[in-house]
Amino acid sequence: MKEIKEILLVVNPIAGDIDKKDLVEDFKAISAKCDVEVFIYHTKGEKDIKHVRKITRERKPFKIVAAGGDGTIKMVAEAIKGLDIPIGVIPSGSANALALNLNLPKSLEEQINVALGQHYLDVDLISLNDEIGLHMSDLGINAELIKNYESSTFRGKLGYLLQTIPTLIQSKYPFNFTVETKDTTITEKGVLLAIANAGKYGTGAKVNPDGKLDDGVFEILIFKNLDLVEILKTLRNEVNLSSDFIKILQTEKAKITCKEPVAFQVDGEYLGETKIVNVKILPEKIKIAVP
Ligand SMILES: Nc1ncnc2c1ncn2[C@@H]1O[C@H](COP(=O)(O)OP(=O)(O)OP(=O)(O)O)[C@@H](O)[C@H]1O
């Protein structure tokens, strides 16, 4: 008798403002062909980490597939931290930066096949204060934009676009950032400080040429140029990054201090304002299915 294995599919119903009915049906159909049963959890927006952890303990899935945006993947990574369970990703959020950095395919069928497949990347886990980050976190203008987006009624790319002007008007820039690593301490004025494990933002903007998700280090980028419009254009991938624009440090551990509290986001989730961020690479990694 063949052993039937179970996968946990975590679906964020609101992510990307897209209906996930077809996604779920296609996922079940392709899984059935691979003799895999699917248990589905629809996220609630509250206590999801706790629920996913509980279901994982009870049902012991051999893999968890996250269908949502970056926030959903981050939530799943937090839920199963310390457990040796691989993750699959079906990008279906308004921001899919991790999927972009993992080079996941465009078509849903291919994405499902990759998620169900056996090729994995051991992705670094970054601890930022009490949070886990996988690809891009930042302090400053981009986090302010995410804050405004999260409190607005419009979802998706349009939602971000609509918040651009109010964010520019309300921004408290420039910010004073001090970064301490084991080798150096620097203080810079800037509009944005990014803590990058990956190379690109979800828009495709390649801000961190040295970024590799699995290299055991992260980069700190300080956007020194104070031209907000230019920076937002760069983040939206409309113009190339200019060389006098950015300062880059590569490290495994850093303490970032701001003079005043600054907006902070981790993998697209706004976390409020903070003056201190302690960042370090965790010893454990997370296995994510890749093409
Ligand atoms: N059922 C739900 N109702 C409301 N919010 C939810 C629900 N499930 C998850 N969420 C919220 O969705 C967010 C994560 O969304 P995710 O990043 O995966 O997709 P997204 O489309 O990029 O999201 P967003 O449009 O908010 O950027 C979290 O803030 C989480 O609390």
From TrEMBL:
Checking InterPro entries in the record gives: ATP-NAD_kinase_N, Diacylglycerol/lipid_kinase, Diacylglycerol_kinase_cat_dom, Lipid_Phosphate_FormReg, NAD/diacylglycerol_kinase_sf, YegS/DAGK_C
Question: Any keyword Transferase?
Answer: yes
Q: Any coiled-coil ranges, and where?
A: none
The UniProt record lists the keyword ATP-binding: yes
SMART domains in the record: DAGKc
Listed GO molecular functions?
A: kinase activity
Q: Which residues form the DAGKc domain?
A: 2-132
Q: Which domain of life is it from?
A: Bacteria
* Any Pfam family the entry gives: DAGK_cat
**Keyword terms:** ATP-binding, Kinase, Nucleotide-binding, Transferase
Name under which the protein is recorded: YegS/Rv2252/BmrU family lipid kinase
**Annotated organism of origin:** Autumnicola lenta
